[in-house]
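Thread: Newbie trying to understand structure tokens

Hi all, I'm a second-year student working on a class project, and my supervisor (Dr. K.) asked me to get a predicted structure for one chain before our next meeting. I've only ever worked with sequences, so writing a 3D structure as a token string is new to me. If someone could post the tokens and maybe explain what I'm looking at, I'd be very grateful. Here's the chain:
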Amino acid sequence: MAETIKIKINEQEFEVDKGARLIDVCREKGFGIPSFCYYKDLELQASCRMCLVRIEKMPKLQTSCTIICTDGMVVTTQSEEVEKAQRAMGEFLLANHPLDCPVCDRGGECELQEIIFDWGDVEQRFSENKNAQPEKYLSPIVANDPQRCILCKRCTRVCSEWMGEDAIEAGNRGVNTVIGTYGGWLNCSECGNCIEVCPTGTLLDAVYRHETRTWELEQTITTDTYSSDGMQLSLGTRGGVVHRIVARDRYVNGLNGEFLDIKARFAHGFVNHADRIKTPLIRYKKGGKLIPATWDDAISFAAAKFKEAGKSVGVIASPRLTNEAIFTLKRFAAEAAGSDNYAVSERHDLASVFDNLSVPLCSHNDIRFAKTILLIGGEPEEEQTYTAKQIRQAVRNGGAKFICVSDTPTNLIHQAATQFIHINEDSYDAFVLGFAGEFDDAILGKLGVEKAEIDDLATAIGQTEGDLIIMIGNNLSPEAQAVLANAAATFGSETRRVLLHPLPLYNNSVGAHDMTDGRMTVEEAAKNSKALLIGGSLQDPSVLDGKDFVAVQELFETETTAFADVIFPAASFAEIDGTYTNNAGNVQRVRMAIEPVHQARSDWMITAAIAREMGVELIDDLSASAVFRSIADSVPAYAGLRYPALKDESNPVQLKYGLSGANDLSVQVALLRKRIETMPDEGTKITSTPRIGHKLFRLTTMTSKTPQFHLLANGNPKPENLLVSPIVQFNPDGTPRAEGRAEAAAVGVADRVAPGKNY
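---
Reply by user tm_fold:
Sure, no problem. This is what the structure looks like when written as tokens:
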């Protein structure tokens, strides 16, 4: 239990934790203190001078963000003296700030606007011309209006501490100080967190810019459909259209705070895209055309074909679907088709980890406050971005040791690693075998590392007092993952807790594992089936070649739907209720923000309707909550859970998976040894660092529906005119666009600052 002290705030006495920061304590106790530069869990800036308070026995007003509470401290937050000082600071902030709230995208949720409005009549005694600068673009998705900047430097600290990139920084001095980037163009991971934390309209979402007013948007709390980290976000919708996504804490206080990555924040163009499948489609004969059909006709057609196939029916689910959809697909195979041919189209199956868990999974908060983090394989800065952010902050703000074992010098290694064990290419199996057993000369030779490096690793682990987190990359073989998960417990001690953190690729990879106990591989399920029902798309659709009948539930026509005899239009994550399970074992709600577009339906509804036509009722009560109830009654880790228990996004429910103890993995160890024997004695090392965004910017079925991603995927070319949107100046392949270039060139600074024009 934390030690407590007593302090007095505005004549009221409180008992608080020793070492607590004064501004946090005052706010927790209901005493509002304005601030702009202060941001919890970031390095202190103390530049806005708005959080001034009077502290007894101190000669002048103090910034409460820099003060640690001490026993007996007497604080005054509200007085004529304090208010006068804060009003003066507000006046300084408005000296150069344009009063263009009616045309600013932040109008209605601007922190500067709110604080000034709270005070009412702030004086404006400065008559000098404002230091006006034109609006411009810093990248295809980040716009900048520099004259609105109040130099709180939240964006620069977030870029440094959260992302480790230092892509944005303050330039010049005094009244000429501006926030910008080297060369005037952002070449970074384009996370947009600088936009999120900006208290004014200085940094803007160029994907959403000028679409709506913020107060017109309905906010719906849901879960990211891309990353396995399970980031919580708020969908801003109006009139059945998703206009923007934020993690702003006024709407949601999830496990990720205000952090999001580029895909979670900006890649939502697919939801309302014109290419969405609008109606069910039927291909009445092989090689024929897909013909639009009614739902009744499509359901009847599919049900008849599945009945005809008897028990030769297979089901394959995408790990992007909700738990409810995957669970219903499995029940369809078992109860409607009487088949055990079901699989998940997962690139890296998680069974080897969860079947051999010897220690619990960690939470993302555990990562942030861990003492030592060991990452073996994987590239979380590109695939599990919130995990990477927690690692960077654990090192920078918490003093953690971060040891990375990889065959590639990734960007995260350059940003945060305290030790980098650079192994030979594709030699992870050798490292895991040595780590779980002993690093003999043969294994060290295969790895291409020195004994001293392994000794340093052993010393770092041995000196750890607190949490040791072992992260399992998705590029480890199933046998290596099993051995590592099984050996983790051996590194614990009385003063050291060991936790595991797998790094799956997809938003619901863990949930898909939980829902499909006893599943086959995709190849086995396809081989054993004449007819297949597929939720989503496959990694390798060629396994469908030659099948008698294929039905696919999808949002868009893909390589998988090219094999389909029936296509059902599925609803996106913004149009459904359900749950995902993230890589920490947190079960999180997905909530309907808009009605399904066109004739789309939830995946589990489509599956249940086909089963009903076959004479089998999979779900008694047609609601997502009823499906989840069935999950809780059938899957041990989810026992007793209900939707109301999942409503607190700031405190997500973490599943308690059974620990297996020490399993006999002699077969897996033998396979690893055999594989290691075939490795070259003189392996090669990868020395080049992959470019930032090489996976984040990748064009997929969903991300390709947001135009800005095409420019990022094609090198993020810098336009000649930063005042005009890059997507006007470039073709999707990154080549300059001939059409419109003259118009873009004609736009100059004067068009943006001259009264009566575009100001």
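A couple of things are worth pointing out once you decode it. The radius of gyration is 28 Å. Residues 754-759 have pLDDT under 50 and may be disordered. Feel free to ask follow-ups in this thread.
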